[in-house]
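Researcher: Next sequence.
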Amino acid sequence: MKNLIKQTAFYLLVAIIVIYAVFPFYYAIISSFKTPAQLFQVDYFPTRLNLENYLSVFRDQPFGKNILNSVLVAGSVVLASLLLGLTAAYALARIQFKGRGLLLMTILGISMFPQVAVLSGMFQLVRTLGLYNHLGALTLSYMLFTLPFTVWVLTTFMRGLPKELEDAAVMDGATPWTIVFKVFLPLMWPALVTTGLLAFIAAWNEFLFALTFTFLDEKRTVPVAISLISGASQHESPWGILMAASVIVTVPVVALVLVFQRRIVSGLTAGAVKG
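Model: Next structure:
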């Protein structure tokens, strides 16, 4: 009887957490199909599928271009973070040098600064490099919060890999580049998928840098584009369009997480255990 009560309480708690986390997104989906007049009616199930809000998202602003900008920026951030993070992790995990621990803590400490604290400095750097209103400015600035986490996770994971693999590769005359990309890389896919996906989500959702470093609508990423959405006319409410845009940009991220959820969990837990 006691076990039954515990199980019931556990599943009830899980149900409450799931409802609390999923319901806002579910209600956003329902609202995205409503007309402006229906938005003020509380409905927990869709009564009709009105696609006008989804059509308005792409008709009234360059939202397709904004999505492409976000894909390009997030993709470049992931590639750069993984490449730099992988090579830095090899140096920090496998090469003995003075100040290695301090360097690793410094890299991690950079991510503790709030974005607004480094905004003015990044703005001057972007202007000096001639990247203002260019997608390269976003890629460069996003590395501030994606690279430290990537380096930390990959370093922890690489420390747990067998030393014998590296020794055998050295005996065969392999260079450090060969060891990193031919020996360690195939074994680190769980950690790479984990850090890559988290870096993608962080870059996909970033707002402050994207708002500051771009000013043309064609250069905006989706978070800024959504914040600037308004009704096309006085008869149109922006809330349905906002809900439709939010659903459009959230579904791909949810799909990626569901597809790679096992690799995400294995990457995080393996790095934690082996570190």
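Model: Confidence is low (pLDDT under 50) at residues 271-275. The two ends are 41 Å apart (CA to CA).
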